[in-house]
Amino acid sequence: MDQDPIFAFQYSTLLRALEAWKAEQLDAYPHREELIETVAVAMRDFMTSRHVHDYKMLVEAPSSRKE
Predict the structure, then answer these.
(1) What percent of the chain is predicted at pLDDT more than 90?
(2) How many domains does the chain have?
(3) Is 7 within a domain?
(4) CA 44 remoteness from chain centre
(5) pTM of full prediction above 0.90
(6) Residue 64: pLDDT above 70?
(7) Is residue 1 classed as helix, strand or coil in its secondary structure?
(8) Nearest 10 degrees: CA dihedral of 44, 9, 29, 39?
(9) Is the pLDDT of residue 45 over 90?
(10) Which of 41, 52, 51 is nearest to 18 (CA)?
C-alpha cells in the first residue's frame, strides 16, 4: 500500500518553487505562457483560500498572546 505524502513548507518557499517551476515550464512550452501563468496564479490563490484552513492543511503558529 502506498503512503499518502505529507508536504511541509513555508509559503515563501512555495512561491520560490512556483517561480522556478514557471520558468522551467515556460522554457519547455513558451507557446503555453498564458496557461502556465494561470496555473501559477490558481496555485497561489488556492494556498491562501479558506479551503486550506477548513481542511486543516495549515499549521498555525501558537499565539504569543498571554491569557
Answers:
(1) 81
(2) 1
(3) no
(4) 6
(5) no
(6) no
(7) coil
(8) -20
(9) yes
(10) 41
